[in-house]
Amino acid sequence: MGQLVQAKGSAVVAKTDEAPAQYLTFSLGGEMFGVGILNVKEIIEYGNLTEIPMMPAFIRGVINLRGSVVPVIDLSARFGGKSTEVGRRTCIVIVEVPDEDTRHDIGIIVDAVSEVLEIPGSEIEPPPSFGAKIRADFIFGMGKVAGKFVILLEINKVLSVEEIAMLTGAENAAAEAGSQT
Questions:
Q1: The pTM is what?
Q2: N or C: which end of the chain has fewer CB within 10 A?
Q3: Is residue 53 one of the residues assigned to a domain?
Q4: How many domains does the chain divide into?
Protein backbone atom coordinates (compact mmCIF):
# COMPACT_ATOMS: atom_id res chain seq x y z
CA MET A 1 0.00 0.00 0.00
CA GLY A 2 2.61 2.50 1.00
CA GLN A 3 6.33 2.65 0.53
CA LEU A 4 8.79 1.33 3.05
CA VAL A 5 11.16 3.97 4.33
CA GLN A 6 14.35 3.37 6.29
CA ALA A 7 14.25 5.37 9.51
CA LYS A 8 17.34 6.52 11.47
CA GLY A 9 17.06 3.79 14.10
CA SER A 10 17.17 1.19 11.28
CA ALA A 11 13.50 0.42 11.84
CA VAL A 12 11.34 0.10 8.78
CA VAL A 13 8.30 2.37 8.78
CA ALA A 14 5.41 2.23 6.33
CA LYS A 15 4.36 5.53 4.78
CA THR A 16 0.73 5.60 3.69
CA ASP A 17 0.31 9.20 2.58
CA GLU A 18 2.55 8.91 -0.50
CA ALA A 19 0.66 7.20 -3.32
CA PRO A 20 -3.08 6.57 -3.39
CA ALA A 21 -4.10 2.96 -2.95
CA GLN A 22 -6.90 1.26 -4.85
CA TYR A 23 -9.79 -0.44 -3.09
CA LEU A 24 -12.65 -2.55 -4.40
CA THR A 25 -15.76 -1.17 -2.73
CA PHE A 26 -18.91 -3.11 -2.02
CA SER A 27 -22.08 -2.81 0.02
CA LEU A 28 -22.97 -5.09 2.85
CA GLY A 29 -25.97 -4.55 5.10
CA GLY A 30 -26.35 -0.94 3.99
CA GLU A 31 -22.71 -0.04 4.76
CA MET A 32 -19.95 0.61 2.22
CA PHE A 33 -16.77 -1.43 2.65
CA GLY A 34 -13.49 -1.57 0.79
CA VAL A 35 -10.76 -4.14 0.41
CA GLY A 36 -7.31 -3.58 -1.10
CA ILE A 37 -7.44 -4.37 -4.82
CA LEU A 38 -4.19 -6.34 -4.55
CA ASN A 39 -6.02 -8.93 -2.43
CA VAL A 40 -8.85 -9.37 -4.95
CA LYS A 41 -8.51 -12.15 -7.53
CA GLU A 42 -11.93 -12.02 -9.18
CA ILE A 43 -15.64 -11.37 -8.75
CA ILE A 44 -18.11 -14.10 -9.64
CA GLU A 45 -21.86 -14.51 -9.73
CA TYR A 46 -23.43 -16.01 -6.61
CA GLY A 47 -24.41 -19.65 -7.02
CA ASN A 48 -23.42 -23.33 -7.01
CA LEU A 49 -22.58 -23.32 -3.30
CA THR A 50 -22.15 -26.69 -1.61
CA GLU A 51 -23.03 -26.52 2.08
CA ILE A 52 -20.81 -28.33 4.56
CA PRO A 53 -22.43 -29.74 7.72
CA MET A 54 -21.31 -28.64 11.19
CA MET A 55 -19.63 -25.43 10.08
CA PRO A 56 -20.03 -22.06 11.81
CA ALA A 57 -22.93 -19.99 10.46
CA PHE A 58 -20.58 -17.56 8.70
CA ILE A 59 -19.11 -20.32 6.51
CA ARG A 60 -21.78 -20.71 3.84
CA GLY A 61 -20.06 -23.57 2.02
CA VAL A 62 -17.59 -24.15 -0.78
CA ILE A 63 -17.53 -23.56 -4.52
CA ASN A 64 -15.63 -25.24 -7.32
CA LEU A 65 -13.47 -22.57 -8.92
CA ARG A 66 -11.78 -24.11 -11.96
CA GLY A 67 -11.12 -27.35 -10.12
CA SER A 68 -10.15 -25.81 -6.78
CA VAL A 69 -12.30 -25.99 -3.66
CA VAL A 70 -12.79 -22.45 -2.34
CA PRO A 71 -14.51 -21.80 1.00
CA VAL A 72 -17.14 -19.05 0.96
CA ILE A 73 -17.58 -16.77 3.98
CA ASP A 74 -20.71 -14.71 4.64
CA LEU A 75 -19.12 -11.41 5.73
CA SER A 76 -22.31 -10.14 7.33
CA ALA A 77 -22.51 -13.23 9.55
CA ARG A 78 -18.73 -13.06 10.21
CA PHE A 79 -19.24 -9.54 11.56
CA GLY A 80 -21.88 -10.87 13.96
CA GLY A 81 -24.91 -9.83 11.94
CA LYS A 82 -27.57 -11.92 10.26
CA SER A 83 -26.84 -14.00 7.19
CA THR A 84 -26.81 -12.21 3.86
CA GLU A 85 -30.05 -12.51 1.98
CA VAL A 86 -29.20 -13.43 -1.59
CA GLY A 87 -30.50 -10.92 -4.10
CA ARG A 88 -30.05 -10.12 -7.76
CA ARG A 89 -26.76 -8.22 -7.23
CA THR A 90 -25.30 -10.58 -4.60
CA CYS A 91 -21.91 -11.87 -5.68
CA ILE A 92 -18.82 -13.63 -4.40
CA VAL A 93 -15.52 -11.76 -4.30
CA ILE A 94 -12.55 -14.14 -4.41
CA VAL A 95 -9.72 -12.77 -2.28
CA GLU A 96 -6.24 -14.10 -1.65
CA VAL A 97 -5.24 -14.34 2.00
CA PRO A 98 -1.65 -15.08 3.07
CA ASP A 99 -1.06 -17.74 5.74
CA GLU A 100 2.54 -18.39 6.75
CA ASP A 101 4.22 -19.62 3.53
CA THR A 102 1.07 -20.18 1.46
CA ARG A 103 -1.81 -18.17 0.06
CA HIS A 104 -5.45 -19.22 0.31
CA ASP A 105 -8.29 -18.23 -1.97
CA ILE A 106 -11.44 -17.45 0.01
CA GLY A 107 -14.77 -16.23 -1.32
CA ILE A 108 -16.72 -13.53 0.50
CA ILE A 109 -20.42 -12.93 -0.08
CA VAL A 110 -21.32 -9.26 -0.58
CA ASP A 111 -24.65 -7.57 -1.32
CA ALA A 112 -23.29 -5.73 -4.36
CA VAL A 113 -19.91 -4.68 -5.75
CA SER A 114 -19.68 -0.93 -6.35
CA GLU A 115 -16.43 0.25 -7.94
CA VAL A 116 -12.67 0.47 -7.60
CA LEU A 117 -11.69 3.69 -5.85
CA GLU A 118 -8.31 5.35 -5.42
CA ILE A 119 -8.07 6.67 -1.88
CA PRO A 120 -4.98 8.70 -0.96
CA GLY A 121 -3.39 7.86 2.40
CA SER A 122 -4.15 11.40 3.56
CA GLU A 123 -7.88 10.61 3.19
CA ILE A 124 -7.74 7.52 5.43
CA GLU A 125 -8.53 8.01 9.10
CA PRO A 126 -7.58 5.45 11.77
CA PRO A 127 -10.30 2.98 12.75
CA PRO A 128 -12.66 4.06 15.54
CA SER A 129 -11.77 2.58 18.92
CA PHE A 130 -15.45 1.99 19.73
CA GLY A 131 -18.91 2.31 18.25
CA ALA A 132 -18.29 0.25 15.11
CA LYS A 133 -20.57 -2.69 14.35
CA ILE A 134 -17.54 -4.89 13.67
CA ARG A 135 -14.38 -5.69 15.60
CA ALA A 136 -11.86 -2.83 15.56
CA ASP A 137 -9.01 -5.13 14.48
CA PHE A 138 -10.99 -5.97 11.31
CA ILE A 139 -10.79 -2.30 10.22
CA PHE A 140 -7.68 -0.95 8.48
CA GLY A 141 -9.06 2.56 8.37
CA MET A 142 -11.94 4.81 7.38
CA GLY A 143 -11.55 6.16 3.85
CA LYS A 144 -13.16 9.54 3.12
CA VAL A 145 -14.76 9.55 -0.31
CA ALA A 146 -17.07 12.37 -1.46
CA GLY A 147 -18.00 13.31 2.09
CA LYS A 148 -18.83 9.74 3.13
CA PHE A 149 -16.84 7.04 4.88
CA VAL A 150 -15.84 3.71 3.37
CA ILE A 151 -14.84 1.11 5.96
CA LEU A 152 -11.51 -0.28 4.72
CA LEU A 153 -11.10 -3.86 5.88
CA GLU A 154 -7.95 -5.52 7.18
CA ILE A 155 -8.75 -8.60 5.09
CA ASN A 156 -5.92 -10.68 6.58
CA LYS A 157 -7.58 -10.35 10.01
CA VAL A 158 -11.19 -10.73 8.81
CA LEU A 159 -10.33 -13.92 6.94
CA SER A 160 -7.54 -15.18 9.22
CA VAL A 161 -7.23 -18.85 8.24
CA GLU A 162 -5.92 -19.63 11.73
CA GLU A 163 -8.84 -17.92 13.53
CA ILE A 164 -11.46 -19.45 11.22
CA ALA A 165 -9.98 -22.92 11.78
CA MET A 166 -10.04 -22.32 15.55
CA LEU A 167 -13.68 -21.13 15.46
CA THR A 168 -14.65 -24.12 13.31
CA GLY A 169 -12.95 -26.51 15.75
CA ALA A 170 -14.64 -24.88 18.77
CA GLU A 171 -18.07 -25.07 17.14
CA ASN A 172 -17.57 -28.72 16.19
CA ALA A 173 -16.42 -29.57 19.74
CA ALA A 174 -19.51 -27.86 21.19
CA ALA A 175 -21.77 -29.78 18.79
CA GLU A 176 -20.13 -33.08 19.74
CA ALA A 177 -20.47 -32.31 23.46
CA GLY A 178 -24.16 -31.48 22.93
CA SER A 179 -24.82 -34.74 21.10
CA GLN A 180 -23.23 -36.82 23.89
CA THR A 181 -25.58 -35.61 26.62
A1: 0.78
A2: C
A3: yes
A4: 1
